[in-house]
Amino acid sequence: MNKKILVSTGGGDCPGLNAVIRAISKAAKRTKDWEVWGSMEAFNGILSDPPELMKLTGKKTAGIHVKGGTILKTTNKGNPLKFPMQQTDGSWIKVDRSQELVDRIHALGFNAVINIGGDGSQRISQALHEKGLNIVGAPKTIDNDLSATDLTFGFSTAVQIATECFDKLITTAESHHRVMIMEVMGRHAGWIALHTAIAGGAEICLIPEIPFDLNKILDKIETRYRKGKGFVNIVIAEGAKPKDGNVIGRQAVSIGDQHIKLGGIGNYLRLQLEEHGCKPQIRTTTLGHIQRGGTPVAFDRILATAMGVKAFELVKEGRFGRMVSYKNNQVVSVPLEEAAKGNKFISPDDYLVNIARSTGISFGDE
Question: C-alpha distances in angstroms, 295 versus 65, 162, 309?
């Protein structure tokens, strides 16, 4: 009788998820000892009655590596440690269903689980592992902010999309002598913004790790126009904030979604610049979920495939409680405790920050 692997994709989607799913399925198929199943919408598929599962056959996974998103669907509203449950009076409470989840996975005959997700998903992986579940993690986030891996798949595609959009804004900014502000994703870490700013040749890059001074931005804009350049392009991460200020966002209204919904810092910056006397016309573009969609670039397909194969190898070898990691150009693994430890932030003296400053990019701090 074949052994069974359960695959879950949780949190926000990103390009490359399907490539991981396909790689796990293909690697398992070669052994002839394992069959692979997917839980729909993260672990919600297991917690549903009846369970919502998909058998990941060769036919189901054929050619999916070129498609964005995930064929297993995903959600950020199904944390089994704080699962939303509606009471008879219509109110909602959060219930720990993690032991129930582990029991259901065992009852369904699964020998191992591969959980693909970001820092929140890997904290869930660690909690489930501590309850006796044979689980392996695979890192996923377009923000590239997991401390236990040098890179996450989806990031390179997000940067490519953002850079292509930024390139288009440069030509219209130049034509109209405008200041263009492009807001990109980056809740706590500004990796997308920083890479896009360098690739696109931005004048100003604003990231969560370096709070900005509005006067410094005004000075940079004024200097650029005074020198006859005639336009300015700004990349700003959604989590960027002014000195002594807060991020712009709102509490999620969907039941079970625990995230603060960021977005609007680009428009906030525009209003602040206008109110403080910035004379050129200012326009704002917010990329939003455009960065999450579409076909993954070649590098992300390769990285995702390598991580899927590595995840299966960890399962096959019985090395549970670990997450796949990309370090020093090698696909390795790290303990889940390390993976769930925290985020990877941009240091003010990061080599890319220094490169950006050397090419004249301002971070609004000096």
Answer: 9, 14, 20
